Amino acid sequence: MRLTRLAAVAGFVAVLALVGPARAEKEVKVVLKGVHLCCGGCVKTVGEVLGKVDGVKPKCDQEAKTVTITAKDTETAKKALKALADAGFHGDTGDKDLAIKDDSGAEKGKVKTLTLTGTHNCCGMCCKGIKTTLKKVDGVTGDTAKPKETTFDVTGDFDAVEVVKALNDAGYHVKVKK
Predict the structure, then answer these.
(1) Contact criterion met (CB below 8 Å) for 140 and 165
(2) What is the distance of C-alpha 21 from the center of its chain?
(3) Closest listed residue to residue 60, CA positions, set 87, 39, 76
(4) DSSP 8-class letter at 144
(5) Strands (E), 22-169
(6) In contact, 144 and 84? CB cutoff 8 Å
(7) Average pLDDT, rounded, for the chain
(8) What H or E segment, with its residue span, contains residue 176?
């Protein structure tokens, strides 16, 4: 009888040891820095985008240009970051495993024209930020960015990767339109 109880307890402990790692990992907090959050429209859009990702609690700090994502697990945090990128927002997490991926499609080398799409550009201040950023890139001579338009052309004689990097660093996520 004692041996049977001991075997049952040992079996139960073994099952717990196997099931334990299968439980959900603990909450993950990601702070995305340098996000373009110039106005209430930007902040509202971030909240709406992240509100659609199940298991995520977002918090925007417009002044600090940060978005804090509290997610139920790592995979959910990655989905939230992808959703923000898809909505045209970019930032730096400081973590290569939990980062917004470069999916711009930009190829290194000089180009004369580049059509970019998918960026968040809800107002005149967003557009001004895009234009100001582009002017700082060597070789860029013009752009067609307009408020509330998510697609625009960049012209001049410039490196496409440098344009994308500059916009990403300014908090905008873009893709090259093929």
Answers:
(1) no
(2) 29
(3) 39
(4) -
(5) 28-33, 56-61, 66-71, 110-117, 140-143, 152-159
(6) no
(7) 90
(8) strand 175-176
- pLDDT reported for residue 1: 53
Task: Identify the pLDDT of residue 116.
Answer: 98
Structure tokens belonging to residue 37:
């959050």
Residues 37 and 171: beta-carbon distance below 8 Å: yes
d(CA 65, CA 144): 26
Give the mean pLDDT per block of 10 residues along the chain (178 residues).
46 44 73 97 97 96 97 97 98 96 95 97 97 98 98 98 98 96
Q: Is 74 exposed, middle or buried (0-12, 13-18, 19+ CB in 10 A)?
A: middle
What Å distances lie between residue 10 and 14, 19, 22, CA to CA? 6, 14, 19
Q: What is the pLDDT of residue 149?
A: 97
The per-residue pLDDT for 20 is: 46
Distance CA 171, CA 91 (A): 5
* pTM of the shown model: 0.85
Phi and psi (nearest 5°) for 137? -85, 125
